[in-house]
Amino acid sequence: MGFYSKITRYIAINIVNTPIRHLNLILLVVGLVLAWILKSYDFTTLGILGAFVGGVMFASVFTVASGTIILLSLANTFPIWQVAIIAGLGAIITNFFIFRFVRDNLYNEIKDVYEFFGHRHLTTLLHTKYFHWFIPLLGALIIASPLPDEFGVSLLGISQMSQGKFLALAFVLNTIGISLILVVQKLL
C-alpha cells in the first residue's frame, strides 16, 4: 500500500466517519460570529445582489442573523419593496433545498420509527381533517415570521404539497416576512 493510499484510508476511516460533536451548536456560533463581523461591512457596494445573498442567508437558523443584518443595511439605501422581493427570491433557494431534503430523505429515515409506533394509528391521526389543514397553516406562519424557516418548510414538505405550490407560497411568505422586518426597522 502506497503512502497516499495510507493517508486516504486514514482520512476516510478516522476523519470522515467520525461525527463532530455539537455540530449544530458550532454552526450557530459560526453564524453569529459571521454576523458580528458583517455588521461593519457596507453592503450597498454589492447593490441589489446583496439582497439576494441576504435572502439566502435569512432562511436558515445558522445564518439568519447575518442575513438580517445585510437586509437591514440595504433597506437604508434601496426601496423596501425591492429589497424584499429580491431577498424573497434568495430565500426560496434555501427553502427549496430544505423542502427537497424533507421530501426525498426524511421519509426513509423515519420510516422505521413510523412502523414501530404503529403506522395505522399515526396514519389515521395525520389524515384527520384537522391535521390536513393545520400542518400547512403552521408551516406557512413559521415561514412568514422572522423565525428561521427550517421547521416551517419541513411541515410543508410532509404535507404533500406540490413543488410548484411550495415555491410560490414560500416566495410570497418570505417576501411578506422580510417586508415586515424592514418596515418595522424604518419605523424605529
List keywords for this structure.
single chain, 0% strand, 9 helices, 188 residues, mainly alpha
Describe the protein.
By secondary structure, this protein is mostly helical. It has one domain (3-187). Helix content is 78%, strand content 0%. It has helices spanning 3-16, 23-38, 49-58, 64-75, 80-116, 119-126, 129-144, 150-158, 163-187. Helix 3 (49-58) packs parallel to helix 5 (80-116) and helix 5 crosses helix 8. The model has no long low-confidence stretch (mean pLDDT 79).
Give the class from helix and strand content and strand pairing.
Answer: mainly alpha
Number of structural domains: 1
Number of strands: 0
- Computed CA radius of gyration, to the nearest angstrom: 20 Å
Question: What is the distance, rounded to the nearest whole angstrom, between the alpha carbons of the first and last residues?
Answer: 67 Å
What does the overall shape look like? globular
> What fraction strand?
under 5%
Instruction: Report on the biggest sheet.
Output: none
Helix-strand pattern: HHHHHHHHH
Helix content: over 70%
Runs in which pLDDT lies below 50 for 5 or more consecutive residues are none
DSSP summary: helix tally:
9
Average predicted confidence as pLDDT: 79
Summarize the structure.
The protein has 188 residues and is mostly helical. 78% of the residues lie in helices and 0% in strands.
